[in-house]
Write a structure and sequence with these properties.
This protein is of the alpha+beta class. About 35% of the residues lie in helices and about 25% in strands. It has a 5-stranded antiparallel β-sheet with strand order 1-2-3-5-4. The relative contact order is 0.16.
């Protein structure tokens, strides 16, 4: 089912600013299904000839993230990070929405350099993905190379 055939749902659209870019985010309440959907759009269009490579990059990313997923529209080159949350038996809280919106927009920001590298700098999907994951490892360890250090006494 395409977006145009869906009944209108309560929706909020906002812009989230992060280190690598600004993301148009959409929060939609699907009341009948007792779910809410968060989507963050990547702020670049993928050139037609690079869409298969970006799809491979997305497959690598989706295999690594715990919440949500990325998708590409092969017709127009739009890329989005999306997350659907089931709230059956619960009440939707502002904190719940804030958390999911944060995860979605932060994921978009984390992987934006990879989308740019594959789309415009000619990097392979594997190299772009590994560069982002290696950068995360270095950041988490607090060391420039990301290596563990040991000392013997």
């Amino acid at each position: 089912m395409d977006d145009k055939s869906r009944a209108p749902h309560p929706t909020i659209i906002l812009i989230k600013e992060h280190d690598n870019g600004s993301y148009r985010c959409q929060i939609t309440m699907l009341e009948e299904e007792e779910r809410f959907h968060v989507m963050a759009s990547i702020p670049i269009k993928i050139p037609a000839e690079r869409r298969p490579a970006v799809a491979e990059f997305i497959a690598r990313v989706n295999g690594n993230i715990l919440m949500g997923h990325f998708s590409i529209n092969f017709s127009n080159g739009d890329v989005r990070c999306q997350h659907m949350t089931d709230i059956k038996g619960s009440s939707l809280s502002e904190e719940m929405v804030r958390q999911v919106l944060g995860v979605c927009s932060q994921s978009a920001d984390k992987y934006l350099p990879g989308f740019v590298a594959v789309s415009y700098a000619g990097k392979t999907p594997k190299d772009a993905f590994e560069a982002i994951e290696n950068d995360d490892s270095r950041r988490e360890s607090g060391r420039p190379g990301g290596e563990e250090s040991t000392t013997s006494q």
